[in-house]
Design a protein that fits this description.
This protein is an alpha/beta fold. It has one domain: TIM Barrel. Helices cover 41% and strands 15% of the residues. The chain is built from 14 helices and nine strands. It has an eight-stranded parallel beta barrel with strand order 1-2-3-4-5-6-8-9, surrounded by six helices. Strand 8, helix 13 and strand 9 form a beta-alpha-beta unit.
Amino acid sequence: MHDERGAGDKGMARRDSLFAVAALVAGAPLLVNNARPDPSTSLRSAAQAAQRSFGAAVQMAQLRADPAFRAAVLAQCDTLTPELELKWASIQPEPDRFDFAAMDNLAAFARANQRHLHGHTLLWHRSIPAWAKSAMAETRDWGIVHRYFATVIERYGPLIEQWDVVNEPIDVIAGESLRRSPFFDIFGPGYIRRALESARALAPKAMLLINEFGMDYPDQRDEDRRRSLIGLIDSLKAQGVAFDGVGLQCHLDLRRGPFDQRIFAAFLGQLAERGMAVFITELDVREADRSLPVAQRDRRVADLAGALVDVALDQPAVRGITCWGLSDRYSWLNAEGSDRPRPGLNRGLPLDRALRPKALHDAIANAFLRHRTSPDRR
């Protein structure tokens, strides 16, 4: 994400029993037009009809404390992304101390309910434990990173088929194309190659991704960022680095200029031409004017995100859509993350604060349904 904020089988089984919840899977006929989907049509079932996935970023504390939200997540999602639990600073706060509790519980929840986990994220400049940053700067020892990867992948690899190996390496400033992160400063630009090679050695069958934001709009900033990502992919492929795809975060913003489907489609085509699988990994919408009537606000959010999802699904390389949160009740765009009524909450996720589907839910569902796969092609 674009901000900061393994147990044994017996232990996992105990946690499974604590968090097992029956999934609410829709059985009604699916619509394939622009009308509102049947209320029982979940984003999960709509995505499955298109042979794609739908997911959301979640926090285990929210799932544990909020049964209604937990049920909504199971009804709507087949993929869960740990919002905080799998970041390095959360997992290894001290050199010899690991804290697996929250991630173990989320892994048990996913396994008990037969949901996929998206491995977010192995390496991110905004989630480096202070001790690791100091140790890497002093020793320039890549083994610190590799040993962390080994610990996490060994523990959760059986449940995680795809990993955001490097998160947000692009930063176009003063002619540069890579972010001057602590990893860059300590190990040089080759740290991205080394991270992918370490992950591949430890997870030879997993799908390895680079996850990045700011690739959405037709303005010069995003054009430069798209060009930088393509250049990074070409460079890695020329070095023989084996990786599988990219995650496009897609944090949309109604305060910015218009979204151009043709430009975004062309970018997706460039990624597909390079053999990249593509995942929309962190979709949400920041509103521009929260004083408008709710229906108008929701329509603007849905029109923007729906246009992106629809053109994304035109590209066969796009495997799935994940929102950065499912409900406005728990959105990082609302600083308090409160479920208490408060005027002006951002309404940029598929479900409102009361867990009711909004126009954005319908737009995403209809985009999936317009791209549904006929039975003879499955």
